[in-house]
Amino acid sequence: MSGVSKPGVSGPDRKTSMNSITAPLQPAAKPRSRLRWPDARSWLAAAQWLVTLLLCAFLIVPVVMSIMAGLTVNYFKGLSSGLTLRWLAEVWTQYHGSVFLSLEVAAATLLITLLTGVPAGYMLARSKTRLSRIIEEFLVLPIALPGLASALALLVVYGGFTAFRMSVAFIVVGHVVFTLPFMVRAVAAVCASSDLRTLEEGAASLGASFVTRFVTIVLPNARPGIVAGALAVLTLSIGEFNLTWMLHTPDTKTLPVGLADTYASLRIEIGSAYTILFFIMTMPLLVAMQWLGVDATGQRSAAQPRGAASSAKSASKSINTR
């Protein structure tokens, strides 16, 4: 009885059926992998990266070489001559007055452009008349003209006032003429993009005066443009050379003018050390623009600062406290 198999399935047939069940479970043979040639999009991306890196090297390498020249004992011998801070010390000893004068001129320029440029940018954004567009074109005109032409125009008009001509205020006026368009355009761009008219009408319906609306609604919404314009004004004022060279006197020599003098009359190491000092002054402003997320037009790369509702609430709150 033990030798008798179960009816319906024989021994060989049972092995065949088991093999047919387990066959699909066995891993299939992997096809041989072939090296694919990069497509056109990959080649285009690689070319873009290559061009970007070459441009960065073209811009950054001269700056690095100039910095290294200001830190080496002898520029012509290179790093083998050793590193030193002697040239920086000499530049600070001889030209620290120019550094402080540049900061004073930049601060005065910023104050004047804030007091005049913010209201001007707001009014140009609100007004849609042809006269406002003509005024805007006249404000931008100093940017289109060379700095020497603007300086010559100031000399022709105000050069006869000797006390004013010899003072630092004359350079401040020139810097205001040059940097005011950047403040006006930055503020106007933000005011035109945000719905300030609706907010102001709502605040006016609640009884808010123009001053209240300007302080509690316009300024908070225009803050990105104001910050962008302020940083642009400071950077341009500190680095302005053409206009300042035409307007300066021996007693009103700013940082860029002193830099030109060092490269023209002193050793290249001192001129490069002066460049390092100039670099230290301007880099924090550029980093601040990136950190605050604003560009030259006043727009934020991140989210908008506050909602419109918060501005309306602050306006109504200031009205209710009266």
UniProtKB/TrEMBL annotation:
It is a multi-pass membrane protein. GO terms for cellular component: plasma membrane. InterPro entries: MetI-like, MetI-like_sf. It is found in: Cell inner membrane; Cell membrane. Keywords: Cell inner membrane, Cell membrane, Membrane, Transmembrane, Transmembrane helix, Transport. GO terms for biological process: transmembrane transport. Residues 1-27, 303-322 are annotated as: Disordered. Pfam families: BPD_transp_1. The chain crosses the membrane at residues 42-75, 95-118, 138-161, 167-191, 226-247, 268-292. Residues 99-289 form the ABC transmembrane type-1 domain. Residues 308-322 have a biased composition (Low complexity). The keyword Magnesium does not apply. Belongs to the binding-protein-dependent transport system permease family. This is ABC transmembrane type-1 domain-containing protein.
